[in-house]
Amino acid sequence: MNTNKIYLESLGCTKNLIDAEMMLGLLQDYGYNVTDRIEEATIAVINTCGFIESAKEESISRILAAARHKQTTLSKLIVTGCLSERYHQELLNEMPEIDGMVGTGRFEEIAQVVENVMKEQRELRIGQIDQPYQEKLRRVRTSANHLAYLKIAEGCNHHCTYCIIPKLRGPLRSRRIEAVIQEASDLAAEGVKELILIAQDTTSYGIDLYHQPSLTRLLEELERIKGIRWIRIMYCYPERIDMKLLDTIHKSQKICAYLDIPIQHSEDRILKRMNRQTTRKKLIHTISMIREKIPGIVLRTTLIVGFPGETEEEFVSLKSFVEEMAFDKLGVFTYSQEEDTPAATMQEQVDEDTKKRRQQEIMQLQQSVSRRIQRNKIGSRLSVFVEEKLDSSDSNYHYAGRTTGDAPEIDGLVYFDAPHELETGTFVPVVITDALEYDLMGVMIDEAEPGK
């Protein structure tokens, strides 16, 4: 066993997290000890995000924080992920504290990079972002034992004008159904109850391998796996949502009645400038179709405000769209002017104060929408996935959990009292007694849990 201890910190999205977990598996297989305390480490790996300005700033901040430990116990600092792929030369030139950099397409070489930097070789390995998905790499999961993110594809074939991802992650490369099913079966055997399907665009899954969208086929196979209770689908592009997919969700006993649909905007001129393949009319049709087919489904979306050329009139129309569509969950980003993207050179860039003001206005509007939706749940009985024990007092135990309508980390929680101790990762029936803008309050019913 190698005596060096490695600390690995992953930033950004869950897709990036899975890369980090595979790097942990590689490092352990190579004989390294892993620690979750940088103070104990001799080698630190910071897996970065470089998607938008705020993510880049956080990544730089974490790299600098790790570099300060080189004054004490830390010997080597390696930077991996999207920021490495995008700004490797600038970082190497400006930050001599960095001993090695690994891009998104070569993270499977992390153990060799560690070996070389320990021999005082400064390493740079980038490119190869179009290579096939590395199926045989072992993951060391860092999420809760009872849930797991399952990456079904890498890369993206869309070329939205604001987005750098295709240049950092390459084109769409779907995993073979057999490989996804094998990983999901292994996760179920480890006690995982909830699978969260992720990709840059889950609804494009299989187009490259099977010459047609194959998400429905994959879902039907995943549903057969024993032990899995919930299957959640993230990152669905609206133009590929069809009746076949909706029928599969509606008939399923395991697929959550929840869809994450990042639409980014509602106005046709802005959607066209973004190179989004849809229109306001099509979006309204798709959302209406989903809700008609699956009554009660929870819809999440994300928006970008302050895109180049967005007028005040278009912003007001976006607000009316948000109010009309009444999304259950909604997040808003201010447009980030990213170099090497077509939108960065567009005329009529919107100033930062206007962007922030528009973001705040949308979020205030969404708060009132969400409050109304949440209050309608008072008195209902929901199946809750127990996530965390909070504390206990008198004869009650206090817990936090999620419903099928809540994805981990990004959505709300159900805070509830229970008459006895519960295990995390179990499902209990809860009657909702109160509601906030995003969270629910309730009381557990001490009886057999109802079905989905």
UniProtKB/TrEMBL annotation:
Cofactor: record remark: Binds 2 [4Fe-4S] clusters. One cluster is coordinated with 3 cysteines and an exchangeable S-adenosyl-L-methionine.
Location of the Radical SAM core domain: 142-372
Domain of life: Bacteria
GO MF entries: 4 iron, 4 sulfur cluster binding; aspartic acid methylthiotransferase activity; metal ion binding; protein methylthiotransferase activity; tRNA-2-methylthio-N(6)-dimethylallyladenosine(37) synthase activity
Listed cofactors: [4Fe-4S] cluster
Subcellular location: Cytoplasm
Record EC number: 2.8.4.4
Entry binding sites for [4Fe-4S] cluster 1: 13, 49, 82
Catalytic activity from the UniProt record: L-aspartate(89)-[ribosomal protein uS12]-hydrogen + (sulfur carrier)-SH + AH2 + 2 S-adenosyl-L-methionine = 3-methylsulfanyl-L-aspartate(89)-[ribosomal protein uS12]-hydrogen + (sulfur carrier)-H + 5'-deoxyadenosine + L-methionine + A + S-adenosyl-L-homocysteine + 2 H(+); N(6)-dimethylallyladenosine(37) in tRNA + (sulfur carrier)-SH + AH2 + 2 S-adenosyl-L-methionine = 2-methylsulfanyl-N(6)-dimethylallyladenosine(37) in tRNA + (sulfur carrier)-H + 5'-deoxyadenosine + L-methionine + A + S-adenosyl-L-homocysteine + 2 H(+)
Pfam families: Radical_SAM, TRAM_2, UPF0004
This protein's GO CC annotations: cytosol; ribosome
Gene3D superfamilies for the chain: Methylthiotransferase, N-terminal domain, Nucleic acid-binding proteins, tm_1862 like domain
Domain TRAM positions: 375-446
PANTHER family referenced in this protein's UniProt entry, alphabetically: RIBOSOMAL PROTEIN S12 METHYLTHIOTRANSFERASE RIMO, RIBOSOMAL PROTEIN US12 METHYLTHIOTRANSFERASE RIMO
Name recorded for this polypeptide: Ribosomal protein uS12 methylthiotransferase RimO
Species of provenance: Anoxynatronum buryatiense
